[in-house]
Amino acid sequence: MEEVEVLVEGGKASAGPPIGPALGPLGLNVGEVVKKINEVTKDFQGMKVPVKIIADPATKKYELKVGTPPASALIMKRAGIEKGTGDGNPVGNISIKDVIEIAKMKKNDLLGNSLKARAKEIIGTCVSMGVSVENMKGKDIIKKIDEGEIDIKE
């Protein structure tokens, strides 16, 4: 088995570099693989997505493992911003619904053992980027979650 790891723009992979040259020697149908990558990454348009192609050159069979974009990229897309800030001044805002959806997408990459804990991790990332949640500071929204005012269920 051969493994090829590439970073592609969601839904916009092409047969050119880095995919074509990496798959060519393995004898795979590059066009077919690219089409499949675009199908499975279309929900991440405008974001870079890690894709692992696991191929068996003998049988020409392959499997795709698609990662998720970094939490920061998902937050920026939801907030409609190009980049975060390091100075603590707010540059964007997302909803608690956005936080929960991102926490669900990143489930396998986060440490929290509950959706509530993972949502708090995403809020922490928002804080470091200067993105508020429901127009509140991170510590304020986390307090509302801890006090049960905002209920996050699995």
Approximate helicity band: 25-40%
- Cα-atom radius of gyration: 19 Å
What is CATH's topology name of the largest domain? Arc Repressor Mutant, subunit A
| Rounded average pLDDT | 91
Strands of the widest sheet, in order across it, are 1-2-3
Let me know the number of strands: 5
The top-level CATH class of the largest domain is Mainly Alpha
Question: How does this structure look, described?
Answer:
This protein is an alpha+beta fold and 154 residues long. The chain folds into two domains: 65 residues, Ribosomal protein L11, N-terminal domain (2-Layer Sandwich), CATH 3.30.1550; 76 residues, Orthogonal Bundle (Arc Repressor Mutant, subunit A). It is built from six helices and five strands, in the order βααββαβααβα. Strand 2 and strand 3 form a beta hairpin. The radius of gyration is 19 Å and the shape is elongated. The model has no long low-confidence stretch (mean pLDDT 91).
